[in-house]
């Protein structure tokens, strides 16, 4: 039990010193401390600079989803996550999509919004007009912050202004519209917003507070479509079941939350593998799903006149290949090389296709044999490991639980004890 969390100068210690202190205060064994201190493929000095107070790392398995054809191009897709059945489901869905040509994905370009909040404005509507009249000078100030981005065709391209009615009275919000190129864009946009804020404050007569990017990236959308042949996916009854499942999600936010979670299973797994900001992606996806005032699915599913299944996905996808973990983490760099994408937009398109594939796989399972049938078979190995199985015993215990249809920790413990004695 930790006696106190007050540790003066903890950030000044080396990784080894922090771990030594942690080991003593938390009562970690030598084995536990060594496991926690392992940073895997990430060099310790790099890890120590990526975030604060570093003591070690945690490894998440990375698998490769196969069979994907996106916009006529084949991809092997790295996916990093801890949940069984996701990589297999994505690969199987992509195989079925190939029958009708795979996935077609379009995008609206790498455009992000930077917001400058202004309060205590004497005349909000007048201030809005004055800020818009100063658009050219404001955009110039913004673009002066990142000449490299501007030279590559990016930079601040437009300015919007709105007046909000809030709990604290009216607020004026100026919004920079920024093409971030191959970067996710948070640093560039935030820097521009902070540089422009003093001018906005002067023009408006108010006081600026927040100057920050919005993660509701509704100008940075991907739209993925795929047609699934009815015979390839199990017949028209399965097609009907998937359309009914979509209708359920469209009508009920409780179901819709899990529907969209299935999409993010795929999106986030690729994002982790490629060093992307998964918190920004999740925030953008779920806020976009709520833009109508009701929480809605990020995909739609319908039956074609031929009886096949047509799926469509539309969602924000703010990703980057410049800066962040995509550049600093060696495993992320290797994963991006395996994927073979050359631009942030191409990465976003791939992730959109994977999200649609993952949603299809989950809905097909639900509409046919049920989600647990395949998932629990794969999960059985995790249960066996948690019960103490090692080596060949893992597969033996998993096989017995599947045979008995008792994939539970207590049964796994019994089988570990029983089969260990026989071995």
Question: What does this protein structure show overall?
Answer:
The protein is α+β, with helices and mostly antiparallel strands. The chain has 4 domains: 1-59, no CATH class; 64-108 and 220-368, 3-hydroxy-3-methylglutaryl-coenzyme A Reductase, Chain A, domain 2; 111-214, Alpha-Beta Plaits, CATH 3.30.70; 374-422. It has helices spanning 15-26, 30-37, 44-50, 86-98, 124-133, 135-143, 147-151, 186-204, 236-251, 253-273, 278-289, 325-328, 330-339, 344-367, 371-386, 392-404, 409-422; strands spanning 62-70, 73-80, 104-107, 111-119, 155-166, 169-179, 207-214, 221-228, 299-303, 309-316. Helix 9 crosses helix 14 (344-367), helix 10 (253-273) packs antiparallel against helix 11 and helix 10 (253-273) crosses helix 14 (344-367). The longest helix is centred in the C-terminal third of the chain and has 24 residues, at 344-367. The chain is globular, with a radius of gyration of 25 Å. It starts with 14 loop residues before the first helix and ends with a helix.
Quickly list its features.
alpha+beta, 4 domains, 4-stranded antiparallel β-sheet, 3-hydroxy-3-methylglutaryl-coenzyme A Reductase, Chain A, domain 2, Alpha-Beta Plaits, globular, 423 residues, single chain, 50% helix
Sum up the overall morphology in one term.
Answer: globular
Characterize the largest beta sheet: strand count, sense, and whether it forms a barrel: 4 strands, antiparallel
Distance between the termini: 39 Å
Instruction: Give the count of structural domains.
Output: 4
- Indicate the proportion of strand residues: 15-25%
Oligomer: single chain
CATH fold topology of the largest domain: 3-hydroxy-3-methylglutaryl-coenzyme A Reductase, Chain A, domain 2
Rg over C-alpha atoms, rounded to the nearest angstrom: 25 Å
Give the SSE order as H and E letters. HHHEEHEEHHHEEHEEHHHEEHHHHHH
Q: Give start-end ranges of low-pLDDT stretches.
A: none
The helix tally amounts to 17
Give the strand order, joined by hyphens, for the main sheet. 3-8-10-9
Structural class: alpha+beta
Top-tier CATH class of the largest domain: Alpha Beta
User: On the 0-100 scale, what is the average pLDDT?
Assistant: 94
């Amino acid at each position: 039990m930790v006696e106190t969390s007050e540790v003066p100068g903890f950030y000044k210690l080396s990784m080894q010193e922090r771990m030594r202190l942690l080991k003593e205060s938390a009562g970690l064994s030598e084995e536990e401390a060594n496991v926690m201190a392992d940073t895997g493929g990430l060099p310790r000095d790099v890890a120590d600079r990526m975030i604060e107070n570093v003591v070690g790392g945690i490894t998440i398995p990375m698998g490769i989803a196969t069979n994907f054809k996106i916009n006529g191009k084949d991809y092997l897709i790295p996916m990093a996550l801890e949940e069984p059945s996701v990589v297999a489901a994505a690969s199987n869905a992509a195989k079925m999509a190939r029958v009708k040509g795979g996935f077609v994905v379009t995008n609206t370009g790498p455009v992000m919004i930077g917001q400058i909040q202004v309060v205590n404005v004497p005349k909000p509507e007048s201030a809005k007009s004055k800020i818009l009249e100063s658009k050219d000078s404001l955009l110039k100030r913004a673009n002066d912050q990142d000449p490299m981005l501007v030279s590559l065709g990016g930079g601040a391209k437009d300015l919007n202004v709105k007046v909000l009615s809030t709990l604290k009275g009216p607020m004026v919000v100026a919004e920079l519209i920024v093409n971030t190129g191959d970067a996710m864009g948070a640093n560039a946009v935030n820097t521009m917003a902070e540089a422009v804020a003093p001018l906005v404050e002067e023009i408006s007569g108010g006081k600026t507070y927040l100057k920050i990017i919005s993660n509701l990236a509704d100008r940075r959308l991907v739209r993925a479509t795929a047609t699934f042949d009815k015979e390839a996916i199990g017949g028209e009854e399965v097609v009907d079941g998937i359309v009914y499942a979509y209708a359920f999600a469209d009508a009920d936010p409780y179901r819709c939350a899990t529907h969209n979670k299935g999409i993010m299973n795929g999106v986030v797994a690729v994002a982790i593998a490629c060093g992307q900001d998964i918190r920004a992606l999740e925030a953008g996806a779920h806020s976009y799903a709520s833009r109508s005032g009701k929480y809605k699915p990020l995909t739609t599913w319908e039956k074609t006149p031929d009886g096949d299944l047509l799926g469509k996905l539309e969602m924000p996808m703010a990703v980057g290949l410049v800066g962040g973990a995509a550049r600093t983490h060696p495993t992320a760099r290797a994963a991006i090389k395996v994927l073979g994408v050359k631009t942030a937009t191409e990465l976003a398109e791939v992730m959109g296709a994977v999200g649609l594939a993952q949603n299809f796989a989950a809905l097909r399972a639900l509409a046919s044999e049920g989600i647990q049938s395949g998932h629990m078979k794969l999960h059985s190995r995790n249960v066996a490991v948690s019960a103490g199985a090692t080596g060949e015993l893992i597969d033996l215990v998993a096989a017995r639980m599947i045979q008995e249809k008792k994939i539970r920790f207590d049964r796994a413990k019994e089988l570990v004890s029983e089969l260990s004695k026989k071995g």
